[in-house]
Every structure is written in C-alpha cells, then in structure tokens.
Design brief:
This protein has helices at 3-15, 36-54, 66-77, 109-117; strands at 21-22, 29-30, 82-83, 105-106. It is built from four helices and four strands. Helix content is 45%, strand content 7%. It has a two-stranded antiparallel sheet with strand order 1-2. Residues 1-10, 25-37 have a biased composition (Polar residues). This is Protein G1-like6. One of its GO terms (biological process) is response to light stimulus.
C-alpha cells in the first residue's frame, strides 16, 4: 500500500461514523462488540490521533502528509521488542546471542506490515 493510499484511507476513516446498535432498554445505544481486527484497527487509529496531537506543532488530519505517516512509523519503532544487531556487533548474525549487547530494539517487520494493512 502506498503512502498516499494510507493518507487517503486516514482521511476517509476520519469521516466515518461508528455504528451503534439499540439495546433492550430502548433509546440508549451501545456500540456493537468489535472483532479482534476492528479493535486493533481502532487502537491503531487512536495511537495515530494521539501522535498527531502530541506532534510539535500539533497536526490536524487534513494537514497530514505521507511524510507524517513515515514519521509516525519511525516513532512506533522505538516501542519495538525485536533486537536488531548493528553490523559492528559481535553477535551480528547470531539468532541467540550468548550475552546482552547495546543494539537497539525495533518493531518487527510483520508488526509494521500488519499496521499498514489495517
């Protein structure tokens, strides 16, 4: 999926209203239970919204560009749990290093791929 498609999807998702269903009490409405996929999609969207709000200066969705999407993905990278060894690391190429090293933790490719897919 291209960055422009992601921005376009973000813009269209922002204009959608969330579905509700009427409960047995009458006029009160409750959101339907979401699938695991939809729940994760909503969490992703909320995380992106929080990122835009905390951006310096704060961004509104209509001013969001492909560069901001890439910046968001880089921002998420800091919360990864996959050890990525630098080429100069003595454990580079070892799937199970015998000791700790200072190499960074990054988002796994599959995690980023799934996020872009959602």
């Amino acid at each position: 999926m291209s960055v422009s498609a992601i921005v376009s999807q973000c813009n269209s998702s922002n204009n959608e209203s969330s579905p509700t269903s009427e409960n047995s009490i009458g006029s009160q409405k409750t959101p339907p239970s979401l699938s695991r996929y939809e729940s994760q999609k909503r969490r992703d969207w909320n995380t992106f919204g929080q990122y835009l709000k905390n951006h310096k200066p704060p961004l509104v969705l209509s001013r969001c560009s492909g560069a901001h999407i890439l910046e968001f993905l880089r921002y998420l990278d800091q919360f990864g749990k996959t050890k990525v060894h630098n080429i100069s690391c003595p454990f580079f190429g070892h799937p199970h290093p015998p000791a700790p090293c200072p190499c960074p933790l990054k988002q796994a490719w599959g995690s980023l791929d799934a996020l872009v897919g959602r």
